[in-house]
Design goal:
Elements (H helix, E strand, L loop, with lengths): L2 H12 L3 E2 L8 H7 L4 E4 L7 H18 L3 E7 H11 L8 H4 L14 H15 L9 E6 L3 H15 L1 H11 L9 H9 L7 H13 L1 H5 L6 H24 L4 H27 L5 E4 L2 H4 L6 H4 L5 H9 L3 E15 L8 E5 L7 H6 L5 E5 L5 H5 L4 E4 L10 H5 E4 L1 H4 L2 E8 L9 H5 L11
Helix pairs in contact: 3-6, 7-8, 7-12, 8-10, 9-12, 10-12, 12-13, 13-16
Length: about 450
């Protein structure tokens, strides 16, 4: 791309942005863009960047304080997030936010056990405590489906308390998984290649029975009967969808990806219906997920290959009531692993590739800004063609960055707005290991300084 085209593009972007200075009014234009939307999906370009977590929290606090949002739904497992939900709503005996977050034990723990999430959970707990009794507290919920065995335990614990005979039947159904020593991928591999019987019929039957008994369970005298049933039902639905997910993950990436994002979209819909019924008005929910989930897949090359995302599904279901906001960075550091289940490391994020969206943003010389994408302004027109866009998950492999971490996207169709932070820093895990503290060797190592 020639310098002349770069200059025209950067000028168009600069003419359409709102600089961010860390002031209270930074996000006034974003609040206007959101308007009366009921679902605000906040992304991230990596799972380990401090600025993304911090700014999502700042935006979410304003949406809760000023616009009546009452739920934060995150890319995390339902049981672990629900423990945080009970804590922030004053329903559990966890002594503090650190203890409430201790359920996040599965890799990558730093996604939710980090100092930025801890600070936000502290704020959410304090916010709810000062609300009047008649006000609706703000909750914290998980949308993901990796907690197959934990969710089975939650279903059994619920039924043992209210319906021991149903608990016995549920235990018999879930015994189908007993041979796999709580190893979800081992089950998926065996079932997908017909090396063992599938548990599909058992988990579907269990969810169906709980739904059939819903009226009996919800009408109990306990004040939280409806909430307890909703939690158990969501766990039973998660078990059903997770069983299918692990069965399909060895058959192809697209089918398992789509099942996962469909589950997250369905969980968001179920949460909305539940909270709307409980609050006697339409619920307003903030979603925290990766850009690759909250962006509209139809604007990306993976969407052309058949993938869909929760952002696309939200737009299809809710139209303008869903607002999708992406986050980008050009360089800095990130908390990530080198392989799955490997320790967290503080890695350098290489400067964005030439011709990428992030490189175009960097070329403006602006350190951080908000770029609305709904209006037909100069930036939207200039960014209409596909450009490279970076996505870092829980694994970062800079040696194969172009292949591992970039895809083509039409930014104005993918998001309603983008927040760019040119230099970003690694999120701090609550239990950083020695490898994280050491950081990554400089690029000149071992040749020089």
């Amino acid at each position: 791309m020639s310098p002349h085209i770069d200059t025209r593009l950067s000028d168009a972007i600069m003419a359409s942005t709102y600089p961010l200075h860390g002031a209270n009014g930074d996000y006034d234009p974003l609040m206007q863009l959101i308007g009366n939307a009921r679902f605000v999906l906040l992304g991230e370009a990596s799972h380990g960047t401090h600025e993304f977590y911090r700014e999502r929290a700042r935006i979410t606090r304003r949406l809760i304080e000023e616009h009546g949002f009452t739920a934060v739904a995150v890319e995390a497992d339902w049981p672990d997030a629900y423990r945080v939900n009970r804590y922030v709503r004053g329903k559990v005996e966890d002594r503090d936010s650190d203890a409430a977050l201790s359920g996040f034990k599965r890799f990558p723990t730093w996604m939710w056990r980090n100092t930025d999430v801890l600070e936000f959970v502290d704020w959410l707990h304090a916010w709810n405590r000062k609300l009047p009794p008649s006000a609706t507290p703000a909750g914290f919920y998980g949308l993901d489906l990796y907690s197959l065995f934990t969710s089975m335990s939650e279903v059994l614990r619920y039924l043992e308390k209210i319906d021991p005979e149903a608990a016995r039947q549920a235990r018999a159904r879930y015994a189908c998984f007993d041979h796999y020593d709580k190893d979800s991928q081992r089950y998926g591999y065996s079932a997908s290649f017909e090396a063992a019987a599938s548990c599909e019929d058992a988990v579907i039957a269990q969810l169906q029975e709980m739904q059939d008994r819903a009226f009996d369970y919800v009408r109990r005298d306990e004040s939280d009967a409806a909430e307890a049933y909703f939690h158990a039902q969501q766990n039973a639905r998660l078990v059903m969808n997770a069983e299918e997910y692990y069965r399909t993950m060895f058959r192809g990436r697209i089918s398992s990806w789509n099942l996962r994002d469909r589950h997250m979209a369905d969980t968001l819909d179920a949460l909305s219906l539940h909270l709307s019924h409980a609050g006697n008005k339409p619920a307003r929910i903030v979603v925290w997920e990766h850009n690759s989930h909250i962006g509209d897949a139809r604007a990306t090359e993976v969407g052309q290959q058949g993938e869909w995302t929760i952002g696309q599904l939200a737009r299809e279901a809710y139209g303008d009531e869903a607002v999708l906001i992406g986050f980008t960075t050009h360089h800095g550091t990130v908390t990530a692993a080198s392989d799955w289940d490997a320790p967290a490391e503080r890695k350098r994020v290489r400067p964005a590739l030439s011709g990428s969206i992030e490189a175009a943003f960097h070329h403006t010389g602006m350190e951080r800004f908000l770029l609305p994408l709904k209006a037909k302004n100069r930036a939207v027109l200039a960014l209409a063609e596909p450009r490279l866009e970076r996505a870092i998950g829980v694994i970062y492999r800079p040696q194969t960055e172009r292949h591992s971490h970039y895809l083509y996207a039409r930014l104005p169709r993918q998001f309603d707005a983008v927040l760019h932070f040119d230099e970003t820093h690694a999120v701090v895990p609550l239990e950083p290991g020695s490898g994280w503290h050491a950081g990554e060797a400089p690029e000149t190592y071992p040749a020089g300084i």
